[in-house]
Every structure is written in C-alpha cells, then in structure tokens.
C-alpha cells in the first residue's frame, strides 16, 4: 500500500473486477456456467456434499443450488445418493463424465492464461506467481452475503 490507501483499494478493486470480467468473457465454452464449473470443482476436490451445503459454499440460494444440481445431473456430470446419516437428505457427487468436463475446462483455462503470460516480461510473470499465496488466502475468506 502507498500513502494513499483509498486509491490503492480502488485500484485493487478495479483490477479484481477486470480479472473477473476477463475470465467470464474469455471462456471458450459456453455450455456450462461459471457457477456450475465452480460446483463441479468443489465436488471434485471436496467430495460429496448436501445441496444445502453446496448452496452455502457457493453463496447461492438453496433453490438455485437444487436447480443447478438438477442440470448437472441431467447432463450426467453429477449424481445423487441417499445420505447414510440422514435418510431424508441426499448427497451430490461428481461423476466420471463431470470430472472429464471439468478437466477440459481446466485445460482450456490453462491455455488461455499461458497465451496471456507470454506477453509479460519474466519479472512480471514472477511477480504474479509470487502473489499467488496472498490471492489464495484472500479467496479462502468466506463471502458474506449482504442482507437486505
């Protein structure tokens, strides 16, 4: 931070928004939403979850999570099974087809980022890599949903 923290915060905010916008616009495949990919990633890395837990983790409503899981299930990318600890609940898991779709997305994303990185000087590339731990720390902070 410089001597003008408000200006630094504004610049950081703009940079984050520009990155998110670039990621959204650069998706080469539009057959699946960013939220669906995030949910598939969560199932892949974190294992099975209840729909209510997925909703909280993805910061979406429970009905939106149910609808999303229904769409993923219809495409064969997710499956539901009975929760052995609560017969009224179900658990959602990623399928092999879902893992394959997620793998395709990750490869596409890596190619897009590699295409960008070659435009940067080696020092700038190193600076981005050095910032990864701090960025990961920031993204690990739970998102508080605003109240009306």
Helix and strand topology:
Blueprint (H helix, E strand, L loop, with lengths): L4 H22 L7 H13 L4 H8 L3 H13 L3 E6 L2 E9 L1 H22 L4 H18 L9
Antiparallel strand pairs: 1-2
Helix pairs in contact: 2-5, 3-4
The main sheet comes to:
2 strands, antiparallel
Low-confidence stretches: none
What Rg, in angstroms, do the CA atoms define?
18 Å
CATH superfamily: Winged helix-like DNA-binding domain superfamily/Winged helix DNA-binding domain
- Under the CATH scheme, which architecture would be assigned? Orthogonal Bundle
Number of domains: 1
Q: Can you tell me the overall shape?
A: globular
Looking at the structure, the CATH topology is Arc Repressor Mutant, subunit A
Distance between the termini: 32 Å
* Assembly annotation: single chain
InterPro entries: HTH-type_Bedaq_tolerance, HTH_MarR-typ, WH-like_DNA-bd_sf, WH_DNA-bd_sf
Protein name: MarR family transcriptional regulator
GO molecular function, one term: DNA-binding transcription factor activity
